[in-house]
Design goal:
Number of strands: 8
Radius of gyration: 21 Å
Largest sheet: 4 strands, mixed
CATH class of the largest domain: Alpha Beta
Strand order of the largest sheet: 4-6-7-8
Helix content: 25-40%
CATH topology of the largest domain: Trna Endonuclease, Chain: A, domain 1
Distance between the termini: 60 Å
Number of domains: 2
Strand content: 15-25%
Number of helices: 8
Structural class: alpha/beta
């Protein structure tokens, strides 16, 4: 006999989240279904002020964090939502067709607990929506994660939305560290460059990057007559936008040598 999977949230806590609209909606008022504070046994947690919407978003895993940064490098992306809940009526029907048990909540009435998707990307060009499951590979040893991926894949397919799975193999620690480092402060680059940024890019492309990244940025900043802190921020914006090619797999930081590839 197959055991009915029970979620960590009680029936009352589940109804509170649904009534509040957690895991639904969009924009700066969006609230994920689970946050870094409320997620049970989150392997990694953190909050980050998203430059796209201005709200604080929550990371529940390092893989999710790295995948989010990677998605935001696409200039067509306008929003990245985390922990979005799928319609229970749809996932219940999918589970019934597959012959598997739908998760339920504990407590009075044991209502069905929603399936959630780690990341949903919103773009200005087709595909307008992209759904992403961000998982660490050890989780694939547990049936509950396979069940979730299967149900999510079918649900998004029925909704006409591409669904992808990324793991810590594609978004490893070094790549995440690199993306954290080159992430610009403030608004993300949109392809329109200031005079200082254009001049920095021209000099940077002709510069020897064999010294540490910070040393090279200081050298370029001195040539241009700008503060090195401003120069470092310009470097990050250019690297984030792909104008300066960096190897993200190296764990880029201030002391990285040969940071820019010719």
């Amino acid at each position: 006999m197959t055991t009915v999977p029970k979620a960590k949230f009680s029936a009352h806590a589940l109804q509170t989240r649904i009534d509040r609209g957690d895991g639904a909606g969009h924009g700066p008022l969006y609230l994920p279904f689970m946050t870094s504070e409320s997620a049970p046994n989150a392997g990694h947690s953190g909050k980050y002020k998203c430059p796209l919407t201005g709200r604080y978003r929550h990371f529940l895993s390092e893989t999710e964090e790295g995948a989010t940064y990677g998605a935001m490098r696409d200039r067509n992306v306008t929003e990245v939502r985390e922990n979005l809940r799928l319609p229970i009526a749809l996932t219940e029907k999918i589970c019934r067709k597959l012959g598997i048990k739908h998760p339920i909540s504990s407590g009075e009435g044991t209502p069905l607990h929603p399936f959630t998707t780690d990341i949903v990307v919103v773009r200005t060009v087709p595909p307008v929506y992209i759904a992403i499951g961000a998982k660490t590979r050890p989780k694939f040893s547990r049936w509950e994660h396979w069940r979730s991926l299967l149900v999510e894949h079918i649900a998004w397919n029925l909704l006409g939305v591409p669904y992808f799975v990324v793991t810590d193999l594609e978004v490893g620690k070094n790549r995440r560290i690199s993306l954290q480092f080159i992430h610009p402060r403030g608004a993300l680059p949109n392809g329109e460059w200031s005079r200082d940024e254009k001049e920095f890019l021209e000099v940077a492309r002709a510069t020897d990057w064999s010294a540490s990244l910070l040393e090279v940025v200081r050298e370029i900043s001195n040539k241009l007559g700008i503060d090195s802190a401003v120069g470092l921020e310009i470097f990050k914006r250019l690297a984030w936008a792909g104008e300066l090619k960096v190897d993200l797999s190296r764990g880029i930081g201030e002391h990285t040598r040969n940071a820019v590839r010719k």
